[in-house]
Amino acid sequence: MIKKQTKTQNRKKPKGSKGGSKRINVVVGVIAALALVGIVVVLLMLRSQKMVNRETVTLFVPTGSDYDAVVDSLNAHNCIGNAVVFNTMARLRQYRDNVKGGCYILKPEERVWNVLTKLYCGNQDAIKITIGKHRTKQQLCDYVGRRLEMDGDTLMALLADDSICSAYGHTPQTIIGMFPQNTYEIYWNTTPEKFLNRMKKESDRFWTNERRSKCKALKLTEDEVITLASIVEEETNKNDEKADIASVYLNRIRKGMLLQADPTLKYAVGDFSLRRLLNKHIETESPYNTYKHSGLPPGPICIPGAASIDAVLANKQTDYLYFCARADFSGRHAFASSLNQHNANAAAFHAEMNRRKIYK
User: Fold this and answer.
1) Low-confidence ranges of the chain (pLDDT < 70)
2) Model pLDDT for residues 147-197, shown as the tens digit of each residue
3) 270 located within any domain
4) C-alpha to C-alpha distance for 81 and 87, rounded to whole angstroms
5) Where are the alpha helices (DSSP H) in 48-181?
6) How remote is the C-alpha of 294 from its chain's centroid?
7) How many domains does the chain have?
8) Are residues 154 and 169 both part of a single domain?
9) Whole-angstrom Cα distance, residue 23 to residue 222?
10) How much is the pTM?
């Protein structure tokens, strides 16, 4: 039996319909490719854009800053040439909602994309701080507060806290000895707690096994060595005579004599500019007044350098018990083993002070 074909089966497909679909697909593909190429070209053009600063810029981004604050700071340094381009790239880099605090060094005409990547990743640059001969904790904290983001008063509060100082093996009087004189690289937004941890590591690194052994040989603690070294530091900047000065004080300690160190008296009075100490100064009541109180003061009177600490640790053997500034005002000292010899040296120096009309 022969089946009849239906109308549908007999219907012929229009000529050219298959070819038309292919052409449409080709056109769509071409348009998509061109669009993709266009996007790539635009992105490449954007990524090739550069900042317009002609000099190296140090950008400080305080903790908690938002995107607008960063833009304002960049504009203040004349870094952004085209705000539309910069904002567009910031959106593409997703930086607008990912601002990280810190210090960032931006090189002249650096690519915008590279700058945004650096800021987005928080790849901040360390800055240098130099711990010098700060005489008080307040001076130290004020300096650190000027160099780093942390508030100096916050750091000072930590250094005055008995429990915190004890955690680092110190007292509020000796904690300043935990900051060795040196230049350090540190991140600008380091917290006070992390800063103290860093300084503790630096202090431990300074106290090598050799130095610790010499310290034990002197029968002094590390804090006592640093305290004595701080007096030596204040007495002279002549490294070649520091060991002699240290020997004077070590000899006096061994004999149970008062140290009678002028720098400690200046510290007690609170006036480091004094050039001539008088009886009224000697009467100052303070544990740092070594004219009235025996032994070492309760803590350093400044942050001593390595040369002064090593001068104490050298334990130079002399019979010196006295010294005073030379009358030639060379900055050097005349040493003596007897009081008569010392009095003669001191008389010559005071006579020269009178001749130069130095009365205070």
Assistant:
1) 1-48, 359-360
2) 999 999 999 999 999 999 999 999 999 999 999 999 999 999 999 999 999
3) yes
4) 11
5) 67-76, 83-92, 112-121, 137-147, 152-159, 162-167
6) 36
7) 3
8) yes
9) 88
10) 0.82
Selection from 247, 253, 255, 249 nearest residue 317 by Cα = 247
Strand extents, DSSP E, the chain: 57-61, 102-106, 127-131, 182-186, 322-325, 333-336
Domain that holds residue 196: 127-206
CB atoms inside a 10 Å sphere around CB 305: 22
- Tell whether 41 is covered by a domain: no
Domain holding 91: CATH number? 3.30.1490.480
Clarify whether residues 137 and 225 are in a common domain: no
Point out the domain boundary residue: 121, 148, 165.
121
**319-323: long-range contacts, CB 8 A cutoff, minimum separation 24:** 319/251, 320/244, 320/247, 320/248, 320/251, 321/248, 321/251, 321/252, 321/255, 321/257, 322/248, 323/244, 323/245, 323/248
Which alpha helices (DSSP H) does 219-338 contain, by range?
A: 222-235, 242-255, 262-269, 279-282, 306-314
Q: Can you tell me the distance from the alpha carbon of 356 to that of 51, in angstroms, rounded to the nearest whole number? A: 60
Is the Cβ–Cβ distance between 322 and 313 less than 8 Å?
Answer: no
Residues 239 and 313 in one domain: yes
Q: Widest CA span of the chain, in angstroms? A: 150
